[in-house]
Structure formats: structure tokens, C-alpha cells
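User: Before I run my own analysis I want an independent prediction to cross-check against. Here's the chain; please return only the C-alpha cells and, at the end, one sentence I can use as a sanity check.
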Amino acid sequence: MIPLQTLLERLEKAGLVVSTQGSFDRLQTIDHLAHDSRKVRPNGLFVAIKGGKADGHLFIDKAVSNEETIAVVCEVMPVEASRRFPGIAFIEVRDSRVALGELAAAFYGDPSRELKIVGVTGTNGKTTTTYLIHHLLMTLGEKAGLVGTIENRIGNDPVASTHTTPDALDLQRLLREMVDAGCTACAVEVSSQALVQHRLHGVAFDVGIFSNLTQDHLDYHGTLEAYRDAKKILFDMLPETATALYNIDDSAGESLVTGTAAEVVSYGQAAEADIRVEVLENTIRGLKLRLDGAERRFRLAGFFNAYNLAAAYGAGRALGYDRDTLLDALAEAPPVPGRFEQFAFKDGTIVIVDYAHTPDALKNVLQTIRETKPKEAALWCIFGCGGDRDPTKRHEMGATVERFADHVIVTADNSRTEPLQRILNDIRSGMERPGEAYWIEDRRAAIQAAAVHARPGDVVLVAGKGHEDYQIVGEKRFPFDDREEVKKHFKVRGSVTS
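Assistant: C-alpha cells:
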């Protein structure tokens, strides 16, 4: 419960209020916020948001149909609001999304101020880096939270995740639950859409991390420049007490931290990096790195994971931990579910399940496998591209797989409402030898085909879905887990260890 007057004052202090109408009784208290008119109950405050699919302003009548609804926050004041909706307090604001973030933070008592918050943004590596940071903090004795694509966590307790970054209400509620459960820190995956939609407004970050920028989400942002600018919002949010940690080897890195008030720290393989990482050994079973001048072996494989490890290490340093303590903890960090997750079979066959669904991520994983697999082993790749998403990356993904894999199986991957044949044709357009690939529309049959045709000792990459346990066809989700399908169809090759 929070007084309506307190919420109004919060919006005024943030410079968001344009005008007010209606009833503002100082004794009125709000017991919940909602931006979905169907979820407004008595003593509630409704925030009308202009969304991509619907405009909440069109549902104000429905939201206030309950006579005990107290207030509405909107960008466009309804005509004669106080006459048409007697007893309702209306607050017109400059931006409803920003207002929702401000209101949610206030309603839940600004939980981020009671936590050390590390935000990770970038095209690839967000999930692995946040998992590494969560592992670090838990290993070092802090009870930590996690907000991300695979799952959310309060300590070691999983909480279901529906978005990479939840909306402002769900995020602030989750952070409050973390604080109440005794958490002292939290690692947060920060998506570009969440930044543009101000879902993180009201979150007090202590560390912001940039991993890399490659083509993705152009169906939403339109251009790579707009996508980059969305990522920059995180660093523009940081206060001077925070740390902005960026990948110096990525061409976009320096531009993202330009103008930030935070202390700027770089990481990467470049000699001038503040935190330098050097790859000494890269095998399919793990890395040996020289990180910040000290050598350690890590359980994660691939050059791309060298960057993820360096970023997590940098976050730990920014939070005040010493070098050797951090490196010892990171050395024990396990692989992340669905991120280069390996299944080794008795006949020597290795199957790797990875979330790679962008051209750069797919290239990184394939390149790592090719460089670390036994010379005599053939590399198979099973992949597809999502429907109703950026189609411009499909031909590049086709070209990439053809370049690095010895055997290619193209299949479905969340086709959604887009015709699967259109997606496959887009992939085919990037290939020089499409006739040499297997084109198997059913993903289960595609995995089964690899299990039948791969030779003992070959390496099979199943790319695109990683941790996901569903397949989206049309508007429906069907149960489907690449990892379970791998275990099922490759079991003829003997026992499996992941």
C-alpha cells in the first residue's frame, strides 16, 4: 500500500507530470499497479501505455469501470475526464513507459538501491555472463539474484522467465522479492527492447557491461545504428558512482560508453585493455587463459567465452573483490544450460546444443568446434531461423554454416506465423551448394537424421534453441527440447554424459 499523493510527488519530482484532473484525496492509498486493463482491481492505479499492438488509452473506460479504481496515468488526458469519470484521479505524463518505471520503483520501495546491480547488454554473451556473475557472487558468499532469458533466480531458487528482461512492474516486484529473501546483489540481462521501452527505468545500476554488437533484432529496431543506440541507453543511465565495463575489441564499444558519468573500464585481448585476457589453450573441453596477468583453466570453451569470463571478472573487480579470489571462483563455473552444452557418447560422438541464432554467434560456435575437434571428426550443423523476425540475417547464416560445417541440416526453428518454405528459401539464398545440404523440415527428424548418419567420433552442433523447451508454430507452442531429443536419438551410441 502506498499513498496516491506519494506516487504523484514521485512523478512530479521526475519532471513527468503535464497536468492533473479529478479527485486527489490525500487519504487514498494504492494497493497495486497495472498496465493491463483486465488486471485492474479496486484500489488500483492503471497506467495507459501506447504499445506495439494496442494502445492502453483505448482501454481507460474498461480500467475504471470498477467504481473503486483510484487513478489513471496517461499520455493523453481524456476529454472532460473529471466529468466523465467522477472520483478518478487522472495524471497526464510526458511518457507513460517512463512513468511506469518510476511508479513501479516507488511502489516496491526502490529495491535496486538495496542491491548491487550488474546489468549486461550486447548481442551475444548476455546469458553466459550473467550466469558467471551469479556464480561468482554465490561462491563468494553473497546471496545473489539473476534476471535473464533462461530463468530468474533468487539465490539458487529458480523463478520462471518469460522475457530476457521483464516489464517494469514484474522486474521491480522480483527485485523486492530478492531483497526480502536476503539477496545483496543481482545480475540482470538487459535487452535492447527493454531499454527502448524503459523497462529498466528506476533501476539503480552499479555496473553496466557491454559484450558486443552484431546484427540482430533489426525487425524491431530497423537499423544497426538504432540497435546500437538502444544499447547505449544503459550506459547513459549509469551514475558517477557506477562502473561502465566495455569490450575494447568490439568496434562499437567505445561509442557506447562515450558520455557516461560512470568510471569507464575496458576489457579484451588488445594490449591497451584495462583488463586483458589472453587465450593460451582452447580445447573443446575448456580454456586456459591469462586473465589480468594470472593463468587459470576454465570449464568453458571457445574464444567467445574468454570475453564472457573477462566481463564477469571485471564486474567482480568493480564490486571490490580481489583478483585471485575471483579467478579461483570463475575456474569452477559450470557451463550454462543450452550454451555450448555438450553431450559425449560412448562411441566418441559429441553433440553440442547452443542458443546461437545470429550470424556472429553461429560463426563463433562453429569456428570454436572446428578449431578444437579431432582432425578426423566431421562437423555437422543442424540449424534454422526464426519466423516473424529479421529476415536479412538468414542468407548470412546459410553462408556461414556452409563455410564451417562439413555436413549441413537445415530445419525449422520457431517458424511462428511465417511460412516455413519462405524461411528456408532465405537461408538457401546464402548458400553456394544448397543441393549438398539436407533439408528436413521437421526438427525432430533432423536430429534423428544426424544420429543415423554421423560417424562415431563426429561432432554435431544443434543450434538456435539452446535452453528452450518449446517449438512455436503459428500462434501455438508445442513441447520440444533439443537436449532431450539428442539424448533420445543418439542413445544408440551408448551412454551419455553432459
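Sanity check: The two ends are 48 Å apart (CA to CA).
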